[in-house]
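Lab notebook page, bench 4
Experiment: in silico fold of construct C2
Operator: M.H.
Input chain length: 239 residues
Purpose: comparison with the prior construct
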Amino acid sequence: MNIDWQILGFGDEGWGGVLLNAATVTVSVSLCAWLLGAVLGSILCWMQIAGSRWQQRLAASYITLFRGVPELLVIYLFYFGGRQVVSTVGTALGFQGPFDVNGFVAGAIAIGLISGAYQSGVFRGAFYAIPKGTLEAATVTGMGRLMMFRRIIVPQALRTALPGMGNQWQSVIKESALVSVTGLVETMNQVSTAANSTQMSFFFYSVGAVIYLIITTCSDMVFRYVEKFAMRGQQRVKE
């Protein structure tokens, strides 16, 4: 198979520029989803650990739901179902259509809600990894709950949670490919367009795989650096 590599150029005849823009969209939607998942995961973790009985049940139900439903179905629900809800509400309020839901927003929210269910488990495990003696010592010295949370729980739990958060980021990157069903021009969508336009399916889907691999590899390097920085001064267990 002879390949003219100029097809990946950044000129008018090449696909390099649009693929780069699509990769930027992939990283952007993934970052928004991951951050939303981190916030939701923190709230769910608190509800499970320190919440009342009904809050614990609510958090458990949320986690069971979003861990058990396919990611693609959640995206369909928020994008296509969301358009129907917005249209119904807009019409009831007397607004003129057409009504639409932004694919970026719908995709980020859908993946973020799923990520939150998994990140809650990461944060919960990190909290229980804090030695009980540390929390008891903080209580004995007269630390309030807010100060203990800020000075003891967050710094120590985050160190433990970093590897799990990195794994969740990698999962979110790969799940972002499903957002292409909304029409959002991210990596998967743009690769499919290029493959269909040029009839070079194997080549462009391979290019898409390389793009995702580059993103995930660079992300892994960043998380490893952050983890190493966070663990500075900590004694490592030798294997």
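Observations: The chain has one domain: 22-231. Helices lie at 16-50, 53-68, 71-92, 103-128, 132-140, 145-175, 187-198, 201-230.
Next step: discuss at group meeting.
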